[in-house]
Amino acid sequence: MTTTTRRRVGIAGALVGAASAGIAAAAMAKRYAVGRIRLRPDLEAGEPFGELRGTDHTLITSDGVALHVEVDEPQERPQERHAADGGAPLTIVLCHGYCLSLESWHYQRRDLRENHRLVLWDQRSHGRSQRAVSGDTSIDRLGDDLAEVLATFVPGPCVLVGHSMGGMTIMALADRHPELFGDKVRGVALIATSAGKLAEVTLGLPALVSKAVHKVAPGTVSMLGRKGSLVDRTRHAGSDIAFLLTRYMAFGDSRNISPTLVDFAETMIRATPTEVVADFYPALMNHDKLSALHVLDPVPTAIMVGDKDWLTPPDHSRAMAEALPKAQLTEVPDTSHLLQLERPGAVTDALRDLIKRVVP
Asked: Does 3 score more than 60 pLDDT?
């Protein structure tokens, strides 16, 4: 081996060694960060996440997709009944967000089911609902799905509660079925959601970086969707990274976030196939229902957002509140996108207050 060859081999070996050291250092830093979080006091370690159950139902939509629906009847006393509706009780309908499932309403379900009739459902392609293979994954279609859920499982008046994409589903219902609001729909809660312009969200990044991210995101998401099965295997292998992303993107500044809670949220997100993530992404980016919000004006409406929400920032909730001047806007401090999980007491209290406004 010549001197030149030995030198090149030595340089290559040094580069490989440096790269290996960098990878090892990054892995150690990741393990250290996850370890620090997991060693904190975990007040939710005994919480039965994913174990609450109601009566299971399957709804076949008008385009042939099987939706999973659960109904919880009041456990203690009958809910207030409305004579004008044949004595039917008020029903609380909970609509979950993108990449989540009906399990994301765990705390609200736990605390409201004793005294209120609840209907929870998995949006198409999410949770235990059927994949909408080659089907409609638009927000408008989700609004039609909600209309069919109401027609089948809600005999009387109701309050609609939507988080993130679930809030957009309610807006689509208002746009496509305005006749339901004021009669069937007596109240609305919009939690960590948006009426449009999600493609302009900065995600907390500098303006130029955010613009570049949004420029490449559609193509990247589409490419990942085409390689969904491979990406899904990688997602399962990278659970520590997913844990950290979920902790810092979906939850706020509090150091007391339960590791068990983060695991619960991350498991829901990871259970959503990459192909589904890609299918719904364009619908979210193209969502624009600000002009439909006036339909909600006759009914009591609550709008809630975390002040550290990077995904549906407070400005989006303020824009909805401007379009609905009678709505009650609440900005929860030090809280991010998974508001109903991070600050369950604040959300449940707001829903109880909304129900009182609907049923004086």
From this structure: no
